[in-house]
Amino acid sequence: MSGRRRARSRKAFVAVLQFLVVVATTYLGLLAVTFFIGRVIPIDPVLAVLGDRAPNHVVERTREAMGLNLPLYQQFFIYCRQAFTGDFGTSVLTTNPVMADIRRVFPATMELATLGTLIGAFIGVPLGVLAAVKRGSIADQVVRVIGLVGYSVPIFWLALLALLVFYARLQWVAYPGRIDIVYEYSFTPVTGFYLLDSAWQGQWDVFRDVFRHIILPASLLGYFSLAYISRMTRSFMLNELQQEYIVAARAKGLSEARIIWTHALRNAAVPLVTVIALSYAGLLEGSVLTETVFAWPGLGLYITNSLQNADMNAVLGGTIIIGSVFIAINLLSDLLYRTLDPRTGAR
């Protein structure tokens, strides 16, 4: 019995060690890519700080203070050390530490991506199930066309069209931004998630205003998430509906609704968790154009404005944060998949 325990402990230790190696290697690769991008881009970080009219001796002194006179491998080591401590330097645009700016803007991106993912999941999963059950029917074709449009249409074009229709013409939603200027200085957020904060504080007028601002960009992100989730749900359900346990359930006389929603969807939900998690990560990193069109003060708009002003500390810091979140969600989804499906742990 003790030998079995030692074997299990050894196996668990090896699994944890492999997990840590994968995390460290992936993150190191992310840091290497961002570091060399920062060195390849023809923007001098010293002149971005001082301006192109600064005296030569000031430029050289600043370059030395920033460590840019050191060999490239030493610069990379310092870059990694600072990144692991959350020090991404100072933003030229805001004159604040980059990490402080990211803490301020990232909740807006998370709130937008979270609502978009919820919309995509709650609509995409039933549509995918419907398409699988009605395979080859008109309903199946409609769902597939919806997914195809979601993959094909550029999001910035769809965002501009949605603004024209739902804001300029119908006046169903609020203008671009996150909150009306009337409430901007009277409302004090706590977590940075305006919907949660306004509801928690009982300020329902603020909640309604924030909802009218967020619903259109979140719906657009939700539509693109829906296209991916519905397609994968259909694929998973088609595979499950062909399994022998479905035939056995029908032979026992179980209702079709119970077979689909209780048995088939439960087994399809295991890989579907990974799909939804990756969709969420994709919205977190891919909402730059949406935030730009809707003037949404999130991380995407922050990176865009920083790039336009040659603020490379902010650009690289934001890129590292987005990459880190994507890596974390990817690893978490893989862990959930292994937990929900014990067969993967046995391979």
Automatic annotation (TrEMBL):
Belongs to the binding-protein-dependent transport system permease family. The chain crosses the membrane at residues 12-37, 112-133, 145-168, 210-229, 268-294, 314-337. It is a multi-pass membrane protein. Coiled coil: none annotated. Gene3D superfamilies: MetI-like. It comes from Rhizobium meliloti. It is found in: Cell membrane. GO terms for cellular component: plasma membrane. InterPro entries: BPD_transp_1_N (IPR045621), MetI-like (IPR000515), MetI-like_sf (IPR035906). GO terms for molecular function: dipeptide transmembrane transporter activity. This is ABC transporter permease subunit. Keywords: Cell membrane, Membrane, Transmembrane, Transmembrane helix, Transport. Residues 106-337 form the ABC transmembrane type-1 domain.
